[in-house]
Structure formats: C-alpha cells, structure tokens
Design goal:
single chain, alpha/beta, D-Maltodextrin-Binding Protein, domain 2, 2 domains, 11 helices, Bug_dom1, Tripartite tricarboxylate transporter substrate binding protein, BUG, signal
Length: 326
Amino acid sequence: MTLPRRSLLAAPLVLPGLATAQTVDGWPNRPVRLVIAFAAGGALDAIARSMGRHMEREYGQPFVVDARSGAGGRIGTAHVGRSPGDGYTLLVTSSAAHGVAPGLYPDLPYHPMNDFTHIGLVGTAPMVLLASANAPYRDLAGLVASARARGTPVNFGSPGIGSLGHLTGELAGRTLGIPVQHVSYRGSAPAQLDLLAGQLELVSDNPSSHSGPMQAGRIRCLAVAAPARMAAFPDAPTWAEQGYPQMVASAWYGFSGPAGMTPAITQRLNASLAAWLATPEARELLRGMAMQPEGRMSPAEYTAFVASEVARWANVAREANVRVEG
C-alpha cells in the first residue's frame, strides 16, 4: 500500500542549481521511494518521514514513504530485494527483518546480503534484562546465585518467539551459565504486566517499551547489553560492568537498497544519512525512542555489520533450538 504523499514538500527548498550539483550521474531526476516493511505510524515510519524531508531538501526531488507491512517485515523487505538497483527504491530496515529473520526462516523470500546494497546504520537500541523491583536480586550476580541455589530454570518473557528479546534472553542464559525458560507474549505490554504482577521473573526486551515503569522504580534493569550506560537510564549498569563484556546486543535500524546500486549513489546516500543524523530533529527523534543515533559506518562497514548480525543470531537460534512458524 502506498501512503498519501503527505511527506512531499509543496516546492523544493533548494535552488535548482544546487539540486543539480548534488546529483550523481543524473540521479535523482524523479521521485524516490523510501519503503518501510512495517505498518505506518510506528518508529520506522517516523524515521523514514524525517529522513525523507531532509533528502527532499537536499536533492530537490520527492522522497515518498511507502509502507508495505506484513510477516514481521519480510514482505516489504522482499519487495525491495526484487526491485531494480537504480536508487529509486530504498529501504529503511531493522534488525528484525535483516538481522534475526534470516536465521529463523529457511524459506525467507530474500537473501539478506546478496539481494541488497547496504548503505548505513541509522540507530541502535541496546537490549535490557529487566526484573520487578520486588525481585530478590538486584544485579546479575544475585540472579546467578538465586538460580543456582534453587536449581530450576529462570523464566523470562519477550515480545514473541524469535524476537530479538527472545534470542537475547537465550544468549543471556548461556552467558551467565544458568538455565532459562522462555515465555512468549504478543508484544511487550502483556509481558510487562506479568512482570509487575510477579507472574514472570524477567523480561528481555528493548528499553523504550518499559521506560515508564523503569523511571518510576517499579521495574529494575539488571543489565544493559551495551558497552556504555544509556543516557536515558544512567543508573542501569551494563553487562560489561558486571563481568560480561562480550554481552552486547542491540535492536537497530538501517538504510539499504536493492542489489546493484552504483558505488557513487551508495556513497552519496551514506553521506546524506550522516548529515540527517547530525540534525537536532533526527537526534531528538531517535533519542525519544531510546535509540542512539549512528551514521558513522561507511557502506562497507555497515555491510560487514549486517553480515555479522545475521551470523550471530542464526547461531543463537540454532543453539537454543528456536523454532518459528510462518
């Protein structure tokens, strides 16, 4: 479904000469589509619209947001993977579709590397391990001691089977050397309710879905899977601080296009992404989602990053015997 072109500017905000100077081999000389593989109104939609407005001003051409949701992002992602690599169909993608899904779906309708030109990393949001404020442990050492003393698996909830929260929770159990049992929920909200009610021990998820109870002190963050503490939650310790520097895991958003895009257009879009991420609008938008603005990776570095994420989460899914349907 193509959304109404609300993101289009009534008139280009750059002079024609400037727009021409910024083109690459005549690109773009017509509207560019920014595909999001999830429903309109969500985080990817907001990111794509803000990015599109910036690029409309920069290039003097419309950048139209096109929401193609379904199958956890696989439908819209596959659509872009089948599109011509001419720079007129681009994808604002996520770790769900481009990092986790390849290791879960053997019949995935796209190849995460071969079918795409990867342009740059938009932002990251570290995963967190959460417990109720009433839990008998306050840190990872206490969690491990409690689990070993009782000898039974620790149950943890996530937004669903095969979600990044699920895989990160499985990885957390292996990192800590304790048995864990996954409890699947349809989204973050029901998992949070059971955590607060004492019916669930832990939740593995992104922090943005739980920021209210975290800030109110009703939910305790046992560990942030990032090299440094989050600015939004400065009291939440990292895994590294507690002796597990290898435990780094983030949800992320990225910018890609179909395979076959020229290096000149790819590099130009990478520079445009970095310029947008340096604006106050972009930084405020992403930080409001508990995300860290990125934009420092070159196309080659981002391509290597995507490949490493695909391999990493496929390995976790295999070791934990995670099976999904659909």
